[in-house]
UniProtKB/TrEMBL annotation, chains A, B:
The keyword Transcription does not apply. The keyword Phosphoprotein does not apply. Keywords: Magnesium, Metal-binding, Transferase. PANTHER family: GERANYLGERANYL PYROPHOSPHATE SYNTHASE, SHORT CHAIN ISOPRENYL DIPHOSPHATE SYNTHASE. This is Polyprenyl synthetase family protein. It comes from Arthrobacter hankyongi. Its cofactor is Mg(2+). Pfam families: polyprenyl_synt. InterPro entries: Isoprenoid_synthase_dom_sf, Polyprenyl_synt, Polyprenyl_synt_CS. Belongs to the FPP/GGPP synthase family.
Length: 362, 362
């Protein structure tokens, strides 16, 4: 590969060979244009757009990297516009879903800094609003910003210079990904109060829907279609994406419970404080430790209780089980990649991206 | 006109000659398909889709009626698919914006019954969640449902059987309408704490952005373009739509403050309890009564205080001023319609729709 320019995907210490600089350029154009239009409305609106731009900065550009990997791997050569634009659209989709997910999870920080809800909450407090009103103001701004990003995703795909049937197919896939994510998000919020509690199988389905479809299946399918590889190849990569995405989300669940706050940039209590029903809890619900874990979770656990729950999740085997499960999904993805007769460069790139997804620490 | 079938637009006692039954059929197909797909995921997801379907029911179908009026008025004759589908898309956009607006306004009822946030809040309370957690659950479900409706709007336009350039133009207009609405919504939430308070001019701009663009300008423009009337005709109708929409929103502000709760289906305290900065307050801010009104608004006004604020808004002339302002926007819209040399049937239909918009009681 030779030199590795700054715009390659970075993830902790590892790097991907897939350059996403053209995607950043597309996003930059998109935000420049929106800010110019917002300037005709009000300074407040410029500020919201700048907040939205900041929400897309500093990310791993995982979804665009997957689009580009599939596109180039299947021989796509149009380095300029369309694939980068589709990658940018999916990054906006990711931003929209993350912003709304943070409202739903009552998170006011992401990657170690205030997210858009946090920024607006803090400035409302500076204006003299009491804490609950300021939080609501922050969440309201975030709802609006997420709607803009979601529309932007559709806009970027709709305006891509592509044959009309392909553009339509990509818009369909985008809508299907929103459909899946919304279904997963809904289950995610309903699981904690479901009776009987959901089975591990249901929790894995939720993860698949909420994250894997839009983060892995959609970009890989889209990249294959953009390169003209056809629907069967897109289906193949889509299936690999589901496996990769499930492995990715399981690692995310492990980081959300056992990760180092300094590294993940997320609150340490994280998933446990929100009593999110992850596969860790689904496994633990069949352990003798469960009544104790459940009681601790129900009592708005603080730092000490969270540490105790972590130890109980380790002693009951939940941590090891989920680590093994993540590895088994990754292995299935690797096996399918190896067996599929894909172009060698594509296989290598996807295995690299898979390793990043499961070896990451944030 | 002869018989008036059940699917005409109804608004209080008056009726429009524009039939929107084909729009309801498009929405019905859309929800049937989504529910079938949700069934593959979980019963909870079917329930969310049924809630979303219910959120679109019982509305005035104002936006589809405007699309169809402009489309048929300019000679569009394809009674079947495209115009009705675009009307259905704009109805979904309306649903999305209303659902998210209700979250932002902390409203749990609409049209006299629980809205989607209210339905989910109530069932979370039945499951034993405390009030704040149950409200958050309701709002979370509403955020998800609004995202689905917003995606659905783009999906329906993207899949309309239209020449590709026209479809792209409509997708652009849809995105521009979301851009305007989001800008208006942001100003709406920021106005109450702005210092100095916003001028009447700014409040009118906010109304224009938040409501008039997507509710009037967008449908009229789209209908003209669908009929092949060209961009100048679309611009003309778009301008009329801005005037109509501003008149409409001013009437909405009057109903939100002085309306009969039994008729509007909205909470009586409404805008005053939320301290929304409407043109009524912008006018009143220059009256001797203002310090008293402001103090009452700041103190979380109950029924008695709301009644007092209403009397003060009447005695200071704010009510009469806003009523006159609504009438003057309606008159400008009528004048422009009369002067524009539009087809006679279109002019009549739009004047009818305008009268409904300003004479309504809910």
């Amino acid at each position: 590969m030779g030199t590795r320019p700054a715009e390659v995907v970075r993830d902790g210490a590892s790097e991907s060979p897939v350059r996403t600089g053209a995607v950043d350029a597309q996003l930059g154009d998109y935000f420049d244009r929106a800010e110019a239009q917002a300037a005709a409305i009000s300074p407040e609106y410029i500020r919201l757009w700048r907040g939205l731009r900041a929400s897309t900065a500093g990310g791993k550009r995982l979804r665009p990297a997957l689009v580009l990997a599939a596109y180039r791997g299947f021989g796509g050569t149009d380095d300029a516009a369309a694939a980068a634009r589709i990658g940018a659209a999916f990054e906006l989709l990711h931003t929209a879903l993350v912003i709304h997910d943070d409202v739903i999870d009552r998170d006011f920080r992401r990657r170690g800094v205030p997210n858009i809800a946090g920024v607006y909450r803090d400035s409302a407090q500076d204006q003299g609003l009491a804490a609950p009103a300021a939080e609501h103001r922050g969440q309201s701004a975030a709802i609006i910003a997420g709607d803009l990003a979601l529309s932007g995703a559709f806009r970027l795909v709709a305006a891509a210079e592509l044959p009309a049937p392909l553009r339509l197919r990509l818009l369909e896939l985008l809508d299907e990904a929103v459909f899946a994510s919304a279904g997963g998000e809904l289950l995610d919020i309903e699981f904690p109060t479901m009776s009987p509690p959901p089975a591990l199988r249901d929790v894995l389905q939720m993860s698949l829907l909420k994250t894997a479809v839009y983060s892995f299946e959609l970009p890989l399918r889209a990249g294959a279609l953009l390169a003209g590889a056809g629907e069967p190849a897109a289906d193949l990569l889509g299936g690999v994406g589901r496996l990769m995405g499930t492995a990715y989300q399981l690692v995310d669940d492990l980081l959300g419970t056992f990760g180092d706050e300094q590294v993940t940039g997320k609150s340490a209590a994280g998933d446990l404080a929100e009593a999110k029903y992850t596969p860790l809890l689904a496994y633990a619900s069949n352990c003798p430790e469960w009544p104790r874990i459940r009681a601790l979770l129900a009592g708005a656990p603080g730092t000490r209780e969270v540490a105790l729950i972590r130890r109980l999740l380790e002693s009951c085997g939940a941590r090891a089980y989920v680590e093994d499960l993540a590895e088994s999904y990754a292995a299935r993805a690797r096996d399918r990649l190896a067996a599929a007769g894909l172009p060698a460069g594509l296989r290598t790139d996807l295995v690299d991206l898979l390793e990043q997804a499961v070896r990451r620490s944030r």
